Amino acid sequence: MQTAKAQFALKTWDERPYLELEDGAKMTNSTITYTYSGDIEGESQLEYLMYYNPDQSGTVVGLQRVTGALAGKKGSFAIKHVGTFDKIGVKETLEIVPGSGTDELVGLRGTGGFDIAGHMDAYPIEFSYEFVDGE
User: Fold this and answer.
1) I need a labelling partner for 76 at 20 to 30 A (CA). Which of 8, 47, 121, 131 fits?
2) Which residues are CB-neighbours of 72 under 8 A, at least 6 positions away?
3) Percent of the chain topping pLDDT 70
4) Domains within the chain, CATH numbers bracketed
């Protein structure tokens, strides 16, 4: 396995509630654009489904498509997100969707994650990855 270290920065965030409960809980859909620098270079589109508890902690699941390059290899790939959040930060585990790599990234597989708090210009992210023949 190889390791990719990068940073992602928020470009756009559009969040819309689709269910709001009387106790303050809600469910939202967010469409997000990130830019990447480091071992991952490019831009991504992410769709989050988020559940907020009344105390504003919650759970998030999402699918993201990254287009650009990984360690100099050009193409695109998808990432599955599963995580939790609260007023302080976000913690997520990530999986590169098997079979989603294109061009020079065909056969890409891997896992990663991040644990971030507060607002920054760019957030660190890390993946362990490999290329599998036959995908």
Assistant:
1) 121
2) none
3) 99
4) 2-131 (2.40.350.10)
